């Protein structure tokens, strides 16, 4: 699964990186005598802008509940950020 993930380094003063988006590929079984044709691959691109998320922890008497809240918060933010790209 690791080969399906590409890490992009954001360089310079900006917070954005341009990522290629490829069309969906399909495959079918063919017979032995079938001549396969070449198809051009023309990727489009999308610009992804990094953002920062932070929480100012205040005094809490129930640290476990506060930790669960933060975990849920970060999970929701990450899920929403990833769904924007999809």
Outline of the structure:
The mean pLDDT is 77.
Can you characterise this structure?
The chain has one helix spanning 63-85, and strands spanning 16-21, 44-49. With 86 residues, it is an alpha+beta fold. The protein has one domain. Strands 1-2 form a two-stranded antiparallel ribbon. The two termini are 18 Å apart. The mean pLDDT is 77.
Percent of residues in helices: 25-40%
End-to-end Cα distance: 18 Å
Low-confidence stretches: none
By DSSP (H or I, 4+ residues per run), the number of helices equals 1
Strand content: 5-15%
Sketch the major β-sheet.
2 strands, antiparallel
The largest beta-sheet arranges its strands as 1-2
Instruction: Kindly report the oligomeric state of this protein.
Output: single chain
Q: Strand-and-helix sequence, N→C?
A: EEH
Mean pLDDT metric: 77
Content-based structural category? alpha+beta
CA-based gyration radius: 22 Å
Tell me how many strands there are: 2
Number of domains: 1
Global morphology:
elongated
Key terms:
86 residues, elongated
What topology emerges from the helices and strands here?
Blueprint: E1 16-21, E2 44-49, H1 63-85
Antiparallel strand pairs: 1-2
């Amino acid at each position: 699964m690791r080969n399906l993930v590409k890490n992009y380094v954001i360089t310079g003063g900006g917070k954005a990186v341009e990522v290629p988006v490829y069309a969906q590929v399909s495959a079918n079984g063919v017979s032995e005598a079938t001549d396969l044709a070449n198809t051009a691959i023309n990727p489009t691109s999308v610009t992804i802008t990094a953002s920062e998320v932070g929480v100012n922890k205040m005094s809490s008497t129930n640290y476990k509940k506060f930790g669960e809240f933060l975990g849920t918060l970060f999970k929701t933010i990450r899920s929403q950020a990833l769904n924007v790209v999809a």
